[in-house]
Each structure stands twice: as structure tokens, then as C-alpha cells.
Amino acid sequence: MSELNRRAEGLQAYADQLGMSVSDVEAHFIHNYGSAFSESAFLAAGGGNWQENELSLRERSLIVITVLTTLGAVDERLKGHLKWATQHNLNREDLEAALALIANYAGFARASVALDILNELDK
């Protein structure tokens, strides 16, 4: 995949995740993070990591939610990925089950924060 295609795929991935237009995503990223960071993020998001092959988008969402929950202190990123997970065939019951399992390995405090964020999405 060419760098131009990777960038376009990355912009589209962020647009889907954040619920913004592609042009709004680009402006948002550059305003908040600067050009160098934004370009790296667009290329990374458009690379093979989110292209379906061995792992489905559903599986990828579960992995990212697990990592973000485990890291903690990334609530806004987790919120975006929890919302986006529904586009990848994960429902609330799936997410609750995953977070219950994560609690056993990453800690109940971290998983409960993720559940709080999930609950906020329903409001």
C-alpha cells in the first residue's frame, strides 16, 4: 500500500472512530497534536494494523480495549474505541464480558473505570 493510500485509510479510520468528517479529523489532529504527530498517527492507523487479515476488526477492537483499559488514564481514547467497537460487531454484553475478564488480570479498579465509560455512552 502506498503512503498516500495509508494516509487516506488512516484518516478514514479516525473519522469512523471519532464520528467526524475526514477533513474535520485532519484539522482536529493538527490543531491538537501538531503536524508531525498527526502524520505519524494517520500513517499508523492506515497501515496493516487495522486491515482485516488474520485478525477481524472485532478481535482488534477487543485487543485495543484491553490495552487501553490496562493502561488507565486514557479515558477519552477508551471512550472512542468502546463506541467504535459497536461498528465491529461487539455489543454491550460482549464488552461487559470482556471487561469482567480484564478485571481479573488488570485489576478491578481499571476495569470499573472502563465500565463507567461504557455506561456513560448509554446516556
Describe what you observe in this structure.
The structure is a single chain. The protein is mainly α. The protein has two domains: 3-50, no CATH class; 57-121, Up-down Bundle (AhpD-like), CATH 1.20.1290.10. Helices cover 76% and strands 0% of the residues. It is built from seven helices and no strands. Helix 5 (75-85) packs across helix 7 and helix 6 (92-106) packs antiparallel against helix 7. The chain is globular.
Nearest-angstrom radius of gyration? 15 Å
Give me the CATH superfamily of the largest domain.
AhpD-like
Which CATH class of the largest domain applies here?
Answer: Mainly Alpha
Total strands: 0
Biggest sheet descriptor: none
Average pLDDT level: 90
From the N-terminal CA to the C-terminal CA, the straight-line distance is 40 Å
Strand fraction: under 5%
SS-based class? mainly alpha
Return the CATH topology of the largest domain. AhpD-like
Assign the CATH architecture of the largest domain: Up-down Bundle
Point out poorly predicted stretches.
Answer: none
